[in-house]
Amino acid sequence: MAVAHDAAARYPAHNRAAEALAGRSLILPGVEVRREGRVEPFLHEHPTLSSTDVPWSGFVLEDYSVPACVIPQHEHLEHFVHVVLRGAVKYEVRTCGKTLQFGAKPGTTFILPRGTVDELKWEGPTRRIAVAIHPRLLVSALDETAHVSDIELTEHWNLIDPQITAVLLAMTTDLNEGSPAGRIYREALGNALAVYLLNRYAVRRYAPVAYRGGLPGYRLKRVLDYIGENLANDVRA
Q1: Element holding 47 (H helix, E strand)
Q2: How far apart are alpha carbons 1 and 67 in whole angstroms?
Q3: Domain range spanning residue 217?
Q4: E strand spans, the chain
Q5: pLDDT tens digit string along 124-135?
Q6: Which residues, 6 or more positions from 174, have their beta carbon under 8 angstroms from its beta carbon?
Q7: Which of 29, 36, 34, 33 is nearest to 11 (CA)?
């Protein structure tokens, strides 16, 4: 059985300065966890597909095909969403002093708030999508959350949610085809995922308000600030 660990070399350019920049720009260097005091990739195996080359603002997506494995204890640095695409296998989760045993199938989903500490044992091969979500993506997803300092998600193991699976598959398809629709489309997918998580899986539910008569002042200011900061760039892509 493979053991997923000790893989910090997957991101050779990753350092504290890069982390600080990622925090400001919402660009994440990969799906990372803290393990034994080190920040390293969630899985040892290289993803078959990753958004780190694009990159996408506010979240990072990685597509893996992995054998049976043990994923040693780790802490999630960002909010974490994980969907099994292929494989019907048993798996065991150790978290919060409890041992949970489940059977995974295509569509099995995890939603884990940042700070979750767990260890997993997978008894067979799977293909799965793993997504790390920057906390600020949730905070900025709606005007109703714009002044909130943080969003707390509820923890879920062995969930089936076709909506999340559909969004992650759309992200994967866009990435696999080279993101032909450009940055605005992929950021719209990220925002759609954030809004859905806010509506369904936040400790406090936030529903978007239907505005009439144009953009609300706060959102208009956000758009104008963005345009002002990016006049030298191609804002159409």
Answers
A1: none
A2: 8
A3: 2-229
A4: 2-3, 32-35, 38-41, 49-50, 59-66, 69-76, 79-86, 89-95, 98-104, 108-112, 117-122, 126-133, 156-160
A5: 999 999 999 999
A6: 180, 181, 185, 186, 189
A7: 29
Q: List the CATH number of the domain containing 71.
A: 2.60.120.810
- Tokens of residue 182, six digits: 């450009």
- Tell me: the pLDDT tens digits for 45-65? 899 999 998 878 899 999 999
DSSP strand pairing (79-86 vs 108-112): antiparallel
Q: What's at 48, amino acid-wise? A: T
Does any domain span residue 65? yes
Q: What is the pTM for the complete model shown?
A: 0.78
* In a domain? residue 6: yes
Residue 113 burial (CB < 10 Å; 0-12/13-18/19+)? buried
- Structural domain contains residue 83: yes
Q: What is the spatial distance between Cα 220 and Cα 40, in angstroms, rounded to a whole number?
A: 38
Rounded-to-integer distance, Cα 185 and Cα 56, Å:
10
- C-alpha 12/C-alpha 27 separation (Å) is 16
Q: Is residue 237 part of a domain?
A: no
Number of structural domains found in the chain: 1
CA distance linking residue 115 with residue 78, whole number of Å: 7
In 3-state terms, what secondary structure has residue 2? strand
Going by their DSSP bridges, the two strands 32-35 and 108-112 should be labelled as: unpaired
Q: How far is CA 95 from CA 72, 86, 115, 143, 181, in A?
A: 11, 24, 12, 34, 40
